[in-house]
Amino acid sequence: MDNKAPTHILIIDEDPQMRRLFGGKLALENFEIFYAKDGLEGREMARRFRPDLILLDLNIPKVNGIELAERLKREQETKDIPIVFLTNSDLTLESQKAAKEMGVSDYIQKGIDLDEFVIRVKKIIGFSIDEN
Amino acid sequence: MNKNENELEFIKSMRLAMHQLRAPLTIIKGNLSLMKDELAKNSKIDLKEYLEEIGIANEKMLDLINALSIILKLESNDLPVNVQPIDFLSIIEEIINKFEPKIKKKKINLEKDFSKNLPIINYDSDLIKIIFQNIISNAVNYTPENGKIKIKIQKQKNDFLIEVSDNGLGIPENQQSKVFTKFFRADNIIKENDGAGLGLYIVKFLIEIFNGKIWFKSEQNKGTVFSILIPFKIQKGTV
């Protein structure tokens, strides 16, 4: 992989302030950010742009986060894109286990310190790049 | 509702309220952190955008707390009602004026059709304002640019019939049964200036306290008409 090419991240969240906050922080770190506001748009953007990472809120309209993650992990075009749940919700241990079994790479609470958020995102993308 | 159902309803409401409070608090925390980092790099940086984000989040929290406060009073039968003679038309005009900047910005065509010689009625003006602020706010927020809103006030034998119609987003049919429930927001709305999803629950509650009625017709992408019947007389005292 060409390490100088920009890394693309898709943020799927219905709250425009959340999109601007996390997208803004990642853009300051030189990532290229795409946005989607619901599950249908998210799937469309993922299939079209094949981002290097998807940050996915669970409470999105039209197709919810869990259902969208399952779909993306099932479909040929998108199954290898790492997905991270970025959420306000508290995931139960059972949900965390289910997410892992589904192939979701991580789940991050939105209240996280933004610098810590960037470190975790870079770790996931770096890890995926090495694997590929 | 029996006691268990009430408790479950309370827990569900608390959970949703906490979730809604967490989001703007996260926005404020994040933007403060970004401001701090940017100032550290360049002390002359323009912080206006960050401050606007913080302002939006702050307003959302205040709106939520205010709405929850009203609901608490309504549900615990503790909402004082101050009945006095009010000029209903003046109140509606006052509310419309408040939305004038937004209506102008979105180039919405607002049509008013008000009956002449509406009587002075004895009501609580603050509660009337809450009802119509919510209804008109929804029409303005969910009508796209260059859209149309019509507000009709008709005097009938014993009541006012008020219709607020728009040609905006409409409410998807499979979600219409939930419109007056707490924290409901249709999933076709553009989530920028929307509220907590408590306004219509409060509106219906208040209207029914006044022995009035509220109903609506809506079609997705075509628009919505809210109809409200307010009797000329209500009873004095604490609700």
Per-chain topology:
The complex is a heterodimer of chains A (132) and B (239).
Chain A (H helix, E strand, L loop, with lengths): L7 E5 L3 H13 L3 E5 L2 H11 L3 E4 L8 H10 L8 E5 L5 H10 L3 E4 L4 H18 L1
Parallel strand pairs in A: 1-2, 1-3, 3-4, 4-5
Helix pairs in contact in A: 2-3
Chain B lengths: L2 H39 L6 H28 L8 E3 L1 H18 L3 E6 L6 E3 L1 H17 L6 E8 L3 E8 L32 H11 L3 E7 L3 E9 L8
Parallel strand pairs in B: 2-4
Antiparallel strand pairs in B: 1-3, 4-5, 5-7, 6-7
Relevant terms:
heterodimer; A: about 130 residues; alpha/beta; 5-stranded parallel β-sheet; about 45% helix; about 15% strand; globular; B: about 240 residues; alpha+beta; Heat Shock Protein 90; 2 domains; 5-stranded mixed β-sheet; two-stranded antiparallel ribbon; 5 helices; 7 strands
Protein architecture, described:
The complex is a heterodimer of chains A (about 130) and B (about 240). Chain A has a 5-stranded parallel beta sheet with strand order 2-1-3-4-5, sandwiched between helices. The longest helix of chain A has 18 residues, at about 115-130. Chain A is about 45% helix and about 15% strand. With about 130 residues, chain A is of the alpha/beta class. By secondary structure, chain B is α+β, with helices and mostly antiparallel strands. In chain B, a hairpin with a 3-residue loop joins strand 4 and strand 5 (about 160-165). In chain B, strands 2-4-5-7-6 form a 5-stranded mixed beta sheet, with helices on one face. Chain B has a two-stranded antiparallel sheet with strand order 1-3. Chain B contains 5 helices and 7 strands, in the order H-H-E-H-E-E-H-E-E-H-E-E. Chain B folds into 2 domains: about 5-75; about 85-230, Histidine kinase-like ATPase, C-terminal domain (Heat Shock Protein 90), CATH 3.30.565. The chains are: A alpha/beta (about 130), B alpha+beta (about 240). The interface between A and B is medium-sized, with 23 and 19 residues.
